[in-house]
Amino acid sequence: MNSYERYRAMLAGEPTDIVPRTPILMAFAANYIGSNYGAFASDYRVLVKANRRCAEDFGIDQLSAISDPYRETQGFGAKITFVRDGVPRCERPPLAEDKDLGLLAEPDPLQSERMRDRVRAIEAYAAEDKGVRSILGWVEGPAAEAADLRGVTPFLIDLMTDEAYACALMDRCVEVGIAFARAQIAAGADTIGIGDAIASQVSPDVYRTCILPRERRLFAAIQEAGGLVRLHICGDITHLLPDLADTEPDIIDLDWQVDMAHARQVLGRDRVLAGNLNPVAAVKDATPDAIRDGVRGIYEAVGNPFLVNAGCEIPPGTPNENLAALCEPVPYRAG
């Protein structure tokens, strides 16, 4: 059973040999091959080389194209500055001082520089790894992208004082997210991750009314295009779990603040859960033995279907032996 077969079997509710390993690597992967985060985020060839090397050396079952939140933002007209050893920076959100949606450029996944770069990463993965490992594309969720375009604080204020505008902005983000996801699926991605981190900061009512319906449009479009959906909302989303229970993402990534046993109870036995060791305290700064115990403890608490992952990105500076411990094969347990 190769990595792709293992991954698809787990998602289908079928037995596997071991539990699939799907950690997200960015700065760690860049450093692992002697490169840097700026190169990783700006050049798909570095991203592909880094993730492929880590997959081979650590036994990771999925190759990821995620790097930072500003792919679509650049397509909308923002200027992005690359930092050698840090996350790329958006110099000024396009709608920071003027709410006019007409100021936004029209992103094209095959023409906008940074969106095209991600599509090329997927193509490069597919050329050698399609059917061997899962290939994960990525788009920003409606709230996350809206916050990138307006700025976090202005967007959160919009949700409270000008809901119609906030929803119109998110609708525009969904349209672009759908086009970007379809381009990545056409290039060879079997799964599309959706990052919607800012959603963890809103009330269940705001999430249910404004954000979730737009996420669901994105889920449906990805699945109609033949992709699987992996939803990741950074932070504590315990308060949002009841609303996610009846939604359609194939996989829900949970950050370390969420109790996995509680999430399983709320989200149901058939939902694929991924996570959720604390990336810093329980991975970067832990011992290999503690990491192995942590992974097995989570798996025992939630059962199948499950993917081994940290709560979010594996931090730079994580000892190699710690990532190896996270990815150490865990035998599949029926039931």
Topology:
Elements: H1 3-11, H2 27-32, H3 37-42, H4 44-58, E1 62-64, H5 71-75, E2 80-83, E3 86-90, H6 113-129, E4 134-140, H7 142-150, H8 152-161, H9 163-187, E5 191-195, H10 204-224, E6 228-232, H11 241-244, E7 251-253, H12 260-267, E8 272-277, H13 279-284, H14 288-302, E9 306-310, H15 320-326
Brief account:
The chain is α/β, with parallel strands linked by helices and about 325 residues long. The protein has helices at about 5-10, 25-30, 35-40, 45-60, 70-75, 115-130, 140-150, 150-160, 165-185, 205-225, 240-245, 260-265, 280-285, 290-300, 320-325, and strands at about 60-65, 80-85, 85-90, 135-140, 190-195, 230, 250-255, 270-275, 305-310.
Key features of this structure:
single chain; 335 residues; alpha/beta; TIM Barrel; seven-stranded parallel sheet; two-stranded antiparallel ribbon; 15 helices; 13% strand
Notes on the structure:
The longest helix has 25 residues, at 163-187. The chain is built from 15 helices and 9 strands. Helix 4 runs parallel beside helix 6, helix 9 (163-187) runs parallel beside helix 10 and helix 14 packs parallel to helix 15 (320-326). The protein has helices at 3-11, 27-32, 37-42, 44-58, 71-75, 113-129, 142-150, 152-161, 163-187, 204-224, 241-244, 260-267, 279-284, 288-302, 320-326; strands at residues 62-64, 80-83, 86-90, 134-140, 191-195, 228-232, 251-253, 272-277, 306-310. It is an alpha/beta fold and 335 residues long. It has a 7-stranded parallel beta sheet. It has a two-stranded antiparallel ribbon with strand order 2-3. It is globular, with a radius of gyration of 19 Å.
